[in-house]
Design brief:
Elements: H1 4-40, H2 63-85, H3 91-113, H4 118-139
Helix pairs in contact: 1-2, 1-4, 2-3, 3-4
Length: 140
């Protein structure tokens, strides 16, 4: 017979998995959309930005950041969501990795842009959640 603690723990992990999947889909879709806009308009005007924002970065325009955003925060996040939905063994590790990738992306962005805004805080919070959830789902 299953103990109450085990049932609650299993339910908690299921909730972590579901919340992670939802957040990954939102992240993946929005990152792919933003990445696409940066690749199609390297000036950033479509997104309401100028290349002046990149003055402290090594990039002359938004092409390379758009490609990186599309791949590492877009495709990778959706791939991770698929792994979690299918309950593949590597899903939790991929979730932890996605959290680390997102955290590094945002920290580098803050350093290069020399500014911190509300979206950075939200993304760092999501990255922390992904790292925690990946760890919890993998090791417990």
């Amino acid at each position: 017979m299953e103990t109450l603690t085990r049932r609650l723990s299993r339910k908690f992990r299921g909730n972590l998995r579901a919340a992670s999947v939802i957040m990954l889909i939102v992240l993946g879709c929005s990152a792919m959309m933003a990445g696409y806009f940066f690749m199609s308009d390297p000036t950033g005007a479509t997104m309401g930005l100028t290349t002046e924002s990149l003055r402290f970065s090594p990039f002359p325009d938004y092409t390379v950041p758009g490609i990186l955003l599309f791949i590492f925060d877009g495709i990778l996040a959706l791939l991770c969501a698929i792994f979690l939905i299918r309950r593949l063994a590597q899903g939790p590790r991929l979730l932890l990795f996605q959290g680390l990738v997102l955290a590094v992306w945002i920290i580098v962005q803050i350093i290069m842009l020399r500014e911190l805004n509300w979206l950075h805080v939200i993304c760092l919070t999501a990255a922390t959640f992904f790292i925690y959830s990946g760890n919890r789902l993998h090791f417990h």
